[in-house]
Design goal:
- With 432 residues, the protein is an alpha/beta fold.
- The strands form three sheets. It has a seven-stranded mixed beta sheet with strand order 1-9-8-5-4-2-3, sandwiched between helices. A four-stranded antiparallel beta sheet has the order 10-11-13-12. A two-stranded antiparallel ribbon has the order 6-7.
- Helix 3 packs parallel to helix 4, helix 3 crosses helix 7 and helix 9 crosses helix 14.
């Protein structure tokens, strides 16, 4: 090592790390949220829900205030808070009136709850492949998956930008389907001038701790449909105990839950929502800096933003072409991690390959709902049905979680230096 420039030797091979100290964790929580939460605690009203038809069926004052503010921000008739985005997806699917054995088309390239929310109602997830640049649902693949039992399309606004809602809406209208936008990762993103999540029959956002804004846990459903909004509120809050007194006659899927978000979380959410636009801008500025610094690295494809849309960069999604780099994605990932780059991942999801779907065992041990008289056909989850998603997972995807750190200018410059150092030494990386 003495006759080499120590700084040019990869950390993986014993050289100095490019990034020697951990970056500050991303946290949009400030004094405003502390004050808001403290006031709720001092009031003694931590929740004001009752699981019966009453004035308190809709929750307490902070729940109501946060929901009204979300309606204003997102420009929708109804915003419904829930205790997690998983709960929100369950409520959304149930509100559509799915029957056991109905099918909902969904992406494999998403968090598992997108699909298990479908199974919750004994419906069947059908996985359609994704676009090879945005990683959102491919409308062509979606149309190929439609069957007589298809009830809805769940479009995932993955990584921070919207799916192709125009194309998906055309397909949905053609076949009489509903659309759910899982916009957990893209609050504030624009699709042709409108906010992502608001163009579907039902949309919504995650308030989980590592999202752009958060209340620890939580979610917000949005819709312009009065009936769907009513049904989601019922599912949120013990529907079966409420429908009679409320005068509800459509009892389909009126199995209620306790999906209620508390007063403290909503007080924090009120303050967080005020910060959403500047927080998004900070991620966009950071992403632009990364793209400028990483452009030109051979075999590295940088994120693509759909035309006439914006990207809010929950994840900065890249692709590596091993034939161009001459070394595998996994070895490059290993070298970058050794240089001190945190927040990288080589895998996101191929849900259809999880044991749940490969073995088709969910409720009980006999394969319900797949192996039952409620299903009308065999739905395949074999490897090969989603080649784009599978290739991303196996060979090419490299993601960087933008909401992990504060992303100061100097920190991004260090990340860029780490990438360039690894690329300068690609010829020295050898796959195991």
């Amino acid at each position: 090592m003495s006759n080499q420039d120590f700084g040019s030797v990869l950390a993986l091979h014993g050289g100095e790390k490019t990034i020697k100290e951990k970056f500050a964790r991303y946290s949009p929580i400030g004094e405003e949220e502390v004050k808001a939460a403290s006031e709720v605690v001092s009031s003694g009203v931590l929740s004001q829900y009752l699981g019966c038809w009453s004035d308190d069926f809709y929750g307490g004052p902070k729940v109501q205030e946060f929901e009204r503010q979300c309606e204003t921000y997102f420009g929708v008739k109804h915003a419904i808070t829930v205790n997690s985005w998983t709960s929100g997806l369950v409520a959304a699917v149930g509100a559509l009136g799915v029957e056991p054995g109905d099918e909902v088309i969904v992406s494999p390239w998403t968090m598992c709850a997108s699909a298990t929310a479908i199974l919750h109602w004994n419906a069947i997830p059908v996985f359609a492949d994704i676009e090879n640049d945005t990683f959102c649902l491919d409308p062509v693949a979606v149309e190929k998956c439609i069957s007589p039992r298809t009830k809805a399309i769940m479009a995932i606004d993955i990584g921070g930008q919207s799916a192709d809602l125009d194309a998906l809406r055309e397909i949905a209208d053609k076949h009489g389907l509903k659309i759910i936008s899982d916009t957990a990762q893209a609050p504030g993103a624009l699709y042709k001038g409108k906010l992502a999540g608001t163009l579907a029959d039902i949309g919504g956002y995650s308030l989980n701790y590592h999202k752009h804004i958060h209340t620890g846990e939580g979610g917000v459903l949005v819709t312009n449909d009065d009936e769907l909004a009513d049904r989601m509120r019922l599912i949120r809050n013990h529907a079966e105990a409420v429908v009679e007194d409320k005068g509800v006659t459509n009892l389909v899927n009126m199995l209620g839950h306790n999906f209620r978000l508390g007063e403290i979380e909503c007080a924090i959410g009120i303050e967080q929502l005020k910060k959403l636009d500047p927080l998004i801008k900070s991620r966009q500025v950071a992403a632009d800096q990364l793209s400028e610094g990483l452009s030109g690295l051979k075999g590295l494809k940088l994120p693509v933003t759909r035309k006439d849309c914006t990207h809010v960069y929950y994840v900065y999604k890249m692709m590596i072409d091993p034939e161009v780099t001459g070394v595998s994605r996994n070895k490059i990932f290993e070298a970058l991690v050794a240089e001190g780059v945190e927040g990288l991942s080589t895998k996101f999801a191929n849900l259809h390959l999880l044991p749940l779907y490969q073995k088709k065992v969910a409720y009980g041990s006999n394969g319900f709902p797949w192996r039952s008289d409620v299903t009308s056909r065999e739905v395949s989850y074999e490897k090969g049905i989603c080649p784009v998603a599978e290739d991303l997972h196996d060979t090419s995807y490299l993601g960087f979680l933008m909401c992990l750190h504060e992303m100061q200018y100097s920190e991004i410059e260090l990340i860029i230096q780490a990438f360039k150092k690894v690329w300068d030494n690609l010829d020295k990386l050898v796959d195991d």
